[in-house]
Description:
Layout: E1 10-11, E2 16-17, H1 31-66, H2 72-106, H3 114-121
Antiparallel strand pairs: 1-2
Helix pairs in contact: 1-2
Amino acid sequence: MIKLAQINLYDTSQTNLKGFGPLGLEQNQDGVSVFSTFISSAVGLITLIGIIWFIFLFLIGAIGIITSGGDKQALEGAKKKISSGIIGLVVMLFAIFIILFIGNILGLDNILNFKLLFSLLQIK
């Protein structure tokens, strides 16, 4: 039988299970670092999906305009796809600026820096 992936979950030097990778508190990380990395990755992934969706809608709308052949309903539908893609992209990018603005109002200049934010919120 051919193995498609080599996953070694058992660490022979420590005789225990070690997991798939840096999913938990490995490599001397604390919980705040893991949470900050997770949130940063999630925001980056959602932004990437939003940009890909905008490109998809823009291309479908452009193809719709090209192939409308003078049909006013098809032309309007294609224009709506392009405009909804642009509005979605602007809203997605504007959300980041709104979060930063709210952070400045609350006195948290680096509201998207979770390590600093949690260090300010910790009870000492």
